[in-house]
Amino acid sequence: MKTNCLSNKALGAYWAVLRDQAQAMRMAGLVRQALIAEAELTPKPGLVDRRGAGTHIDLSLAIMRRSVLAIEPYICLMAFVCRRSHPSQPLRQRLAVIGRDAECAMLKATSGSNSHKGAIWILGLLAAAAAMQNDDNPRASAITATAKKIASFEDRATPLLVSHGDMVAKRYGVAGARGEALHGFPNVVNVGLPMLHSRRASGATENVARLDTLLSIMARLADTCLLYRGGEDALATAKEGAAAVESAGGSATAIGRQRLRRLDRCLLELGVSPGGSGDLLAATLFLDAVERRQNEVQADRSGSEDIYGTH
Predict the structure, then answer these.
(1) Tens digit of pLDDT for each residue in 35-84?
(2) Which is the most buried residue in 96, 202, 258, 295, by most CB within 10 A?
(3) DSSP-assigned states of every residue in the chain
(4) Helix pair angle (61-82, 2-40), 10° resolution
(5) How far apart are the first and last CA of the chain?
(6) Whole-angstrom distance, CA of residue 193 vs CA of residue 15
């Protein structure tokens, strides 16, 4: 009996590990699909898409895809170590180490280009938080609340590793990526997801729903990518341009498409792009898929009819 008891315990532990691995792989797969769907979505103002590199001379759609594949195993590891865990300082430190390893893998895959540094922080944190949920049908609000708790613990290596986003956040007094997490991702929960759901409910195509979600986030986010490359004028231009498309009824209307083209030209002339907004769109797509208990994020299907020329 004692041997059988031990065997049953060992077998139970074995199956628990397999379930945890499967869950972590699912979270990482959804992150990969969300990031690729965001990259492929076309036409996005200033950003890499199917038309070209936008304002990024060192990036391309092929590089973005390669970058996502490189970081996927690290997102999987983040999710795995968080299963059956709770937010804590030691866990935060472990996630930080994995995140820095992911950045190294990204830089190696892109020959030194920063394609997804912000996304590693945002999507890694959300995947980790999603993996902690015991509910079979977790809500985005519960996941972001858990992510907020994880982010509240300091990364003790931070004083030695200051990012562009950190510098910009301090200079302009804006939240930045860490601030977004510390506030529970309000631009995802209160802006991105409601817009995505609303546009779908109105009968919009998925392409239009995602573009309008991106523009809705852009109109409200103090995007540190824009501030870093173009200062407050660039941020104001992007926010006002995105709001103008919104006020015209979105990217599916004739006036909205015209204003979107104008915004794209303005950002190209300024040499800036809303990278932070793009990351939060990917986060929105990820959380939407988790909430709906999907095993896949629908691939982007931007066709030639959605593309208004080249960058």
Answers:
(1) 999 999 999 999 999 999 999 999 999 999 999 999 999 999 999 999 88
(2) 96
(3) -HHHHHHHHHHHHHHHHHHHHHHHHHHHHHHHHHHHHHHH-SS-SSS-BTTB-TT-TT--HHHHHHHHHHHHHHHHHHHHHHTT----HHHHHHHHHHHHHHHHHHHHHTTT--SSHHHHHHHHHHHHHHHH--SSS--HHHHHHHHHHHHTS--TTGGG---HHHHHHHHHT--HHHHHHHTT-HIIIIIIHHHHHHHHHTT--HHHHHHHHHHHHHTT---HHHHHHHHHHHHHHHHHHHHHHHHTT-TTSHHHHHHHHHHHHHHHHHT---HHHHHHHHHHHHHHHHHTT-SSPPPP---GGG--S--
(4) 150
(5) 71
(6) 34
| Nearest-angstrom CA–CA distance, 15 and 252 | 48
Question: Would you state the pLDDT for residue 304?
Answer: 46
Residues written for the chain: 311
Distance CA 17, CA 216 (A): 40
- The two structure tokens encoding residue 138: 């977790």
Confirm whether pTM is higher than 0.70. yes
Encoding tokens for residue 311?
A: 């960058």
Mean pLDDT of all residues in the chain? Answer: 91
**In this structure, is the dihedral angle defined by the CA atoms of residues 198, 205, 36 and 28, taken in order, positive or negative?**
positive
What tokens were used for 104? 């190294």
pLDDT at 172: 77
Query: To the nearest whole percent, how much of the chain has pLDDT over 70?
Result: 91
Amino acid at 2: K
Asked if residue 140 lies in contact with residue 290, where contact means CB atoms within 8 angstroms, the answer is yes
